[in-house]
């Protein structure tokens, strides 16, 4: 596991993820072993664009964006030590055992934990869990393939 001095900030995230506002859902990488596990955070604020319509009187982060945040951490994990990442993409092919346990609202800080469960060549299966204040709010098993850009 990396030490706290090696926490990855947003500038380093920009080097790996192609996402930008309003779809970038990772604010900081807290820890990783560099190969099979990564922990990140996403600060959820009322300024998020999606809260304008979901729902104005009772804002709740859409579940699909919770899964997207976990997927982005998965991409960070797969590409963080890959010097050839500029020539590759990750295509997600499945979401299994997805559950939403509690609503995520403005002011929450998501702790996003992703672990590689299985790898076969360029195919990966990862477990993603999202927590707020230690409580599990969402979880899913994500399947993906790392492919060459064409």
Descriptive overview:
16% of the residues lie in helices and 41% in strands. With 150 residues, the protein is of the alpha+beta class. The chain has a six-stranded antiparallel sheet with strand order 1-2-4-5-6-3, with helices on one face. A hairpin with a 4-residue loop joins strand 1 (28-32) and strand 2. The protein starts with 9 loop residues before the first helix and ends with a strand.
What is the CATH C level class, in words? Alpha Beta
Distance between the termini: 34 Å
- Order of strands across the main sheet: 1-2-4-5-6-3
Specify the CATH homologous superfamily: Hotdog Thioesterase
Q: What does the main sheet amount to? A: 6 strands, antiparallel
Oligomeric category: single chain
Number of domains: 1
Helix content: 10-25%
Number of helices: 2
Report the C-alpha radius of gyration, rounded.
15 Å
Strand content: 35-45%
From the structure above, extract its key features.
disordered N terminus, six-stranded antiparallel beta sheet, 2 helices, 16% helix, Thiol Ester Dehydrase, Chain A, alpha+beta, globular, 150 residues
Tell me the layout of helices and strands.
Layout: H1 10-16, E1 28-32, E2 37-43, H2 63-79, E3 88-100, E4 109-120, E5 123-132, E6 135-148
Antiparallel strand pairs: 1-2, 2-4, 3-6, 4-5, 5-6
Summarize the structure.
By secondary structure, this protein is α+β, with helices and mostly antiparallel strands. It contains two helices and six strands; from the N terminus they run H-E-E-H-E-E-E-E. Helices cover about 15% and strands about 40% of the residues.
């Amino acid at each position: 596991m990396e030490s706290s001095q090696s926490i990855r900030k947003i500038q380093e995230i920009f080097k790996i993820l192609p996402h930008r506002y309003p779809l970038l859902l990772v604010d900081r990488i807290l820890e990783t072993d560099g190969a099979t596990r990564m922990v990140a955070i996403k600060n959820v604020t009322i300024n998020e664009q999606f809260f304008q319509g979901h729902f104005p009187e009772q804002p709740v982060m859409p579940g699909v964006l919770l899964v997207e945040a976990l997927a982005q951490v998965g991409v960070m994990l797969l590409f963080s030590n890959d010097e050839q990442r500029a020539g590759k993409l990750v295509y997600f092919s499945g979401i299994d055992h997805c559950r939403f346990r509690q609503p995520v609202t403005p002011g929450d800080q998501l702790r996003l934990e992703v672990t590689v469960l299985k790898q076969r060549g360029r195919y990966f299966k990862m477990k993603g869990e999202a927590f707020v204040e230690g409580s599990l709010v969402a979880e899913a098993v994500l399947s993906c393939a790392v492919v060459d850009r064409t």
